[in-house]
């Protein structure tokens, strides 16, 4: 493979498009969570909790699903807890383990931000694709996620 072919590799194109699409989406979606006083990380954590059984996750699972370190997720949960949106509950079976639990105030904050957030997702992401394209993209992203970050798959216990 000569130098030009190397730089024109379609794998680089696909990766570059993924980076560009991600950055563009964040720029378009950011105003929806900022209006509610949240960061993108805050919203991601609150959504993950809201979509988990009993609206709770082990701190380690929340760290994995948000791509945070143990100390990073602790700081995040501390901040969300101070805002009354999440509480940390010790696991009665293992007092060394804690779970992050979405509070009623956290649910209300999500109910406040989600209509505008979903409208923006529709406008800048899902609405740009046909249903078949969206299904294929979702399936493809799940394959890549499962291979590269299998610990992010939701655990139920």
Distance between the termini: 50 Å
CATH level-four homologous superfamily name? Winged helix-like DNA-binding domain superfamily/Winged helix DNA-binding domain
Number of beta strands: 3
Fraction of residues in H or I helices: 55-70%
| SS content category | mainly alpha
The CATH topology assignment is Arc Repressor Mutant, subunit A
Strand adjacency order, main sheet: 1-3-2
Number of domains: 1
Rough outline: globular
Order of helices and strands: HHHEHHEEHH
Query: How large a portion of the residues is in β-strands, by DSSP E?
Result: 5-15%
Give the C-alpha Rg: 18 Å
Which CATH architecture would you pick? Answer: Orthogonal Bundle
In the CATH hierarchy, what is the class? Mainly Alpha
Low-pLDDT regions:
none
What is the average of the pLDDT values? 92
Largest sheet features: 3 strands, antiparallel
Keywords:
single chain; 157 residues; mainly alpha; Arc Repressor Mutant, subunit A; three-stranded antiparallel β-sheet; 7 helices; globular; MarR family winged helix-turn-helix transcriptional regulator
Q: Could you provide a short overview of the structure?
A:
It comes from Nocardia xishanensis. The protein is built from 7 helices and 3 strands.
Q: How would you characterize this protein structure?
A:
With 157 residues, the chain is mainly alpha-helical. The chain has a single domain, classed as Winged helix-like DNA-binding domain superfamily/Winged helix DNA-binding domain (Arc Repressor Mutant, subunit A), CATH 1.10.10. The protein is built from 7 helices and 3 strands. It has helices spanning 3-7, 10-34, 40-50, 59-65, 70-82, 104-124, 131-148; strands at residues 56-58, 86-91, 94-102. The chain has a 3-stranded antiparallel beta sheet with strand order 1-3-2. Strand 2 and strand 3 form a beta hairpin. Helix 2 (10-34) packs across helix 6 (104-124) and helix 4 crosses helix 5. The radius of gyration is 18 Å and the shape is globular. The termini are far apart.
